[in-house]
């Protein structure tokens, strides 16, 4: 996708998992990649990997729930590269709990990161995209933006909200050269999935491998999705040639959800 070379892309929560895979994929396209996360050491490790491939990279510590962090991120990016052209809202948390046992603290944290975090970034980075008549916002949602399962009320609510924000912004930006889409992965082979599988294993008296196999079996392709597969769809949506795709939610789930 030659048109991604030189583009300024911001990936939130890029220290591991899907965010890291997306950052590396844009780096391979010679985009200018801004990676953010909360831990300096983890960020530096991903930045070093990106630099070793020849990519131009800016690593900046940023908790997306903190608006002043996002504002200082904007200033830093504009000083170094210019205005963000592609925003990938990837940072997210997915703690599980049955609704009646769930604490208010868990609910608040999921909303703060998954909903307010994406809101803070859209609010900060959208206006310059509209001014430039070109931009891409890609929200990493989930299949649970479309369906729900027991034990994840907060997460499912937050991902439905992510899709709502995607659609609302797509409508508001439709004539501005900006597209806004969501990528909806099923179970992806990341630390987050391993942590959730570990909790599931403890609850059911299973091994971690058995819990992971159960998650994989829920996918018609009988496997976990790899982070690079989510990155591929993100690149596609960021491309010039995807300018007609906006307000969409694209599943990368091996056929698990077909609604
Ligand atoms: P992960 O836990 O491996 O990575 C999440 C990243 O977000 C980490 O870098 C973490 O530090 C960062 N993060 C969390 N809170 C943050 C905050 N307040 N500010 C900045 N960064 C923060 O998770 P993952 O599996 O790579 O998931 C990435 C995204 O994909 C999430 O939004 C998740 O909901 C979504 N997703 C994951 C799966 C899956 O099966 N793993 C499935 C569907 C959707």
If you had to describe this structure to a student in words, what would you say it looks like?
With 259 residues, the chain is of the alpha/beta class. It folds into two domains: 2-186 and 226-245, Rossmann fold, CATH 3.40.50; 188-224, no CATH class. It has eight helices and seven strands. It has helices at residues 17-28, 40-52, 67-80, 104-132, 153-173, 191-204, 208-217, 227-238, and strands at residues 8-11, 32-37, 56-61, 86-89, 135-140, 178-185, 249-252. It has a seven-stranded parallel beta sheet, sandwiched between helices. Strand 4 (86-89), helix 4 (104-132) and strand 5 form a beta-alpha-beta unit. Helix 3 (67-80) packs parallel to helix 4 and helix 6 (191-204) crosses helix 7. It is globular. The model has no long low-confidence stretch (mean pLDDT 97). Nicotinamide-adenine-dinucleotide binds at residues 12-13, 15-19, 37-38, 63-65, 90-94, 113, 117, 140, 142, 185, 187-188, 190-193.
Secondary-structure map with pairings?
Layout: E1 8-11, H1 17-28, E2 32-37, H2 40-52, E3 56-61, H3 67-80, E4 86-89, H4 104-132, E5 135-140, H5 153-173, E6 178-185, H6 191-204, H7 208-217, H8 227-238, E7 249-252
Parallel strand pairs: 1-2, 1-4, 2-3, 4-5, 5-6, 6-7
Nicotinamide-adenine-dinucleotide binds at residues 12-13, 15-19, 37-38, 63-65, 90-94, 113, 117, 140, 142, 185, 187-188, 190-193.
CATH superfamily of the largest domain: NAD(P)-binding Rossmann-like Domain
Helix content: 40-55%
CATH architecture assignment name of the largest domain: 3-Layer(aba) Sandwich
**If strands are numbered along the chain, what order do they take across the biggest sheet?**
3-2-1-4-5-6-7
Q: List segments where confidence is low: pLDDT < 50 over at least 5 consecutive residues.
A: none
Separation of the first and last Cα atoms: 29 Å
Rg from alpha-carbon coordinates: 18 Å
The dominant shape is globular
Largest sheet: 7 strands, parallel
CATH topology of the largest domain: Rossmann fold
The SS-based structural class is alpha/beta
Question: How many strands?
Answer: 7
